[in-house]
Structure formats: C-alpha cells, structure tokens
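sorry for the late reply, my laptop died twice this morning and i had to redo everyting from scratch. anyway the thing you sent over, i finally got around to it. pasting the sequence first so we're on the same page, its 67 residues, then the predicted structure underneath. double check i copied it right bc i was rushing
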Amino acid sequence: MNKILIVEDDKNTLLGLVEILSEEGYEVEGADSAKKALRTLQKENFDILLTELKMPNMSGMVLYDRS
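ok and here's the structure:
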C-alpha cells in the first residue's frame, strides 16, 4: 500500500484528509507546514506527497523542489 504525506496548513482539513485516506487503507502521515514536512521527509520515505500550493513561509512548489 502507498505511503502518503499530506501537507496542509489548515488543521481541520489536514485531519479530515488523513482520516479519509486512512479509512481507505492507506498509510498516511500529516504535516501542518512545509517545514515540518521537510523534517518528516528527512526521516521517512513516502510514495506520494500531497501538498497545498499556497502556504505561509514556503509554497507547495518549493516544498516539492526541496523534497
């Protein structure tokens, strides 16, 4: 099964997405900022990175470039 990292700065949306995908059987982890996502990516490997594009401090595109 695919391992997914979701990056979303709205905590309610993040929790909802993690819950929905987890219920579908995916292994899911969430991060509420790009900075936290980068730290997580340094420790673990993911098959899919699903990120919001517009976030404070670092956009989703910059996150993709750095991951």
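The first strand starts at residue 3 and ends at 7.
thats about all i looked at so far, will dig more tmrw
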